[in-house]
Prior knowledge:
40% of the residues lie in helices and 14% in strands. With 283 residues, the chain is α/β, with parallel strands linked by helices. The strands form 2 sheets. Strands 5-4-3-2-1-8-7-6 form an 8-stranded parallel beta sheet. Strands 9-10 form a two-stranded antiparallel ribbon. The longest helix is centred in the middle third of the chain and has 17 residues, at 169-185. The model has no long low-confidence stretch (mean pLDDT 94).
Amino acid sequence: MNGPEMPRLRSLLFVPGDRPERMEKALGLGADALILDLEDAVALPNKPAARTAVAALLAKRPPMTIFVRINPLDSGLAEADLAAILPARPDGIVLPKAEGAASLRMLDAQLTGDTLILPIATETPAAIFALGTYGGVTARLAGLTWGAEDLPAAIGAATSREPDGSYTAPYQLARSLTLFGAHAAGVPAIETVYPDFRDLDGLAAYAARGRRDGFTGMMAIHPAQVAVINAAFSPSEAEIAHARAVVALFAANPDAGALALDGRMVDAPHLKAARALLAGMEQ
C-alpha cells in the first residue's frame, strides 16, 4: 500500500505532555522522534492542560518527527485527546493498549492526512493473540512496539523480570511475537524502554541485543539514553563496508546463487540484509 513517508526511528524519546519546558528542551536532544505523552505520564487532573501544551508545541511545527501517545481508545479520554491535537497535525499517534487490526482500524478511521500510527501491541492479554493481524490494515502503520509493565499488571503477575533484570518467559514471548508481528506486517519493530536510565552500559548491551534480534529502534525514557540508542541502532563503518561489498559482488555476478566473500559464503539472504542496511542509511 502507498502511504505516508516513514521517518527514521532509531530513538523515540518519551516526554510528559504536561511539562512544556521539557518538551521544548527535548527538541534539541538528538532523538529521531519524540513521543509527547498524554497517557501514563500525566495524572488525570492534568490531562486538559497537557492537551493544550502538546497542541501548542505542535502548532510551532518543530523540524522533527513528533508522535503523541493518546489514552486508550476505550478509556473515555481518547476522543478529547484527538480533538485537541489533530488540528495541530502531529506526525503520528502512539496507540496504547492496542489489540490488533480492530484497534488499528478504529483509530485509522478517525485520522486524516498523513498521520502515522505506532501501536503499543502487548499491554493486554487479548493483544498477545492479535500480534499477527496488523498487516494490510492501513498504510499509516509506522511500526510495532511493546511494553513489559502493563501486561503483568493486567494478569496479576508479580513482575515481568528475573532478579537479574532479564524478562521472564511470558514476556520474552510477548517481545518475540511483537518482533515477528512487525516484520510480518512489513514495518519496523521498536524495542521497549530500558527503565534504569542511569545504567548506560546496561542500556547499550540491551539495545545491542535488540538490534541483533531484528529490532530497528528503541524507545527512551530519559535524554541520557538517546545517544546510546542512536549508536546501537546505527551500522558501524565495518558493517557498511561489508554490505557494500556484498551488493557489489552480486552485481558483478548476477547469475550466481552463492559466492565467496572474505573466506565465507554469502547468498540471497545476505544480499537482502545488505540492501536493507544500506537502504536504512538513506532515510
